[in-house]
């Protein structure tokens, strides 16, 4: 099986499992007056680990599954999550160390904010009868705070599942070990003493 097929199967399994978890369990929980939304976090994690194309495709799939499961207007979540996944993948290409500890936290907060605001704007433009008030702003801020706290565990779970299928370039790079004794014999590995 090719690496792309392995990644696709693993991402599809993650998406299906977490959409079921989101709609059945997490939607029943309420923290700070809001419910956690792990769909943007999963899409961001896939984008950071596998690149913009995988992030956008995951966003489309998870958005479509979410819209189908919640009987919402089809395509709204997909449209928003495609953008979130693509920008997370682009951030992977731009950042020096996309697997640093603070990157999933910052990306989770920013991606959740973009996803929630984008979803709200699109729903408003489509004419869904929902009152726009400070309550909406409070709920968006609460959800972003909750998602920021959940960003690291979700990223670790997605990384653990995708790690065997990712090419070596997607894995975290480490510094080479120093020679025994802690001293450097040469500056360049090409120059032999």
UniProtKB/TrEMBL annotation:
It is found in: Cell membrane. GO terms for cellular component: plasma membrane. The chain crosses the membrane at residues 6-26, 38-62, 68-88, 100-124, 136-158. Keywords: Cell membrane, Cell shape, Membrane, Transmembrane, Transmembrane helix. The keyword Metal-binding does not apply. Its main location: membrane. It is a multi-pass membrane protein. Coiled coil: none annotated. InterPro entries: Cell_shape_determining_MreD (IPR007227). One of its GO terms (biological process) is regulation of cell shape. The keyword Transmembrane helix applies. This is Uncharacterized protein. It comes from uncultured Solirubrobacteraceae bacterium.
């Amino acid at each position: 099986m090719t690496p792309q097929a392995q990644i696709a199967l693993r991402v599809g399994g993650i998406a299906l499992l977490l959409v079921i978890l989101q709609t059945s369990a997490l939607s029943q929980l309420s923290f700070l007056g809001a419910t956690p939304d792990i769909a943007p976090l999963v899409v961001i994690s896939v984008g950071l680990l596998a690149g913009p194309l995988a992030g956008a495709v995951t966003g489309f799939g998870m958005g479509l599954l979410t819209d189908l499961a919640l009987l919402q207007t089809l395509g709204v979540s997909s449209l928003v999550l495609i953008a979130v996944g693509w920008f997370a993948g682009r951030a992977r290409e731009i950042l020096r160390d996309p697997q640093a500890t603070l990157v999933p936290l910052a990306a989770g907060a920013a991606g959740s904010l973009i996803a929630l605001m984008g979803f709200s704007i699109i729903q408003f433009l489509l004419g869904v009868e929902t009152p726009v008030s400070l309550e909406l702003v409070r709920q968006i801020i609460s959800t972003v705070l909750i998602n920021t706290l959940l960003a690291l565990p979700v990223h670790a779970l997605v990384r653990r599942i995708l790690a065997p299928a990712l090419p070596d370039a997607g894995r975290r790079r480490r510094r080479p070990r120093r020679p025994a004794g802690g001293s450097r014999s040469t500056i360049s590995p090409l120059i032999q003493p």
